[in-house]
Write a structure and sequence with these properties.
six-stranded antiparallel β-barrel, 56% strand, two-stranded antiparallel sheet, Pnp Oxidase, Chain A, 140 residues, 10 strands, mainly beta
Length: 140
């Protein structure tokens, strides 16, 4: 396994086993991520009283996505991420951001592109998005 030179952001992919083992697949020195929590309007006809519609909402619905440009360890790993994108595979991933924390849980690769010969380490742009609830563990 080649050394992943980006030590600020590391994307780790789970193997699906029990207990699950996570392997670093890409590393970078910067990341852009978005964490949203929009309200969803759940108003129904039953919420109407005396001709007035009372709105009801669910809040705290989170949406997480992250994009980074970094280094990927080899061509096999790159091809694995491409296969996951093509099949729209949901896997457990961990996105560790040094000094900030770790987002972990089911994610899917939404975009991926790369460059280099991949004989050792190539460059890659990767975007992942949460497929359901994630956990966040702050850095200690």
């Amino acid at each position: 396994m080649a050394v992943i030179k980006g030590d600020k952001v590391v994307l780790k992919k789970g193997d699906g086993a029990s207990p699950e083992v996570f392997t670093a697949v890409a590393g970078a020195r910067n990341v852009q991520f978005s964490l949203g929590g929009d309200e969803i309007d759940t108003t129904t006809a039953d919420d109407i009283s005396s001709g007035v519609t009372w709105r009801t909402y669910i809040s705290g619905i989170a949406d997480f996505s992250a994009t980074f440009a970094g280094l990927i360890k080899d061509k096999t790993t790159f091809n694995g991420l491409i296969a996951d994108r093509l099949a729209d595979t949901v896997r457990n991933y961990q996105l560790e951001i040094t000094g900030f924390g770790t987002f972990a849980g089911p994610m899917r690769v939404t975009t991926i592109d790369g460059a280099g010969e991949f004989s050792d380490v190539g460059t890659v742009n990767v975007s992942v998005r949460a497929a359901s609830a994630l956990t966040y563990t702050p850095a200690v």
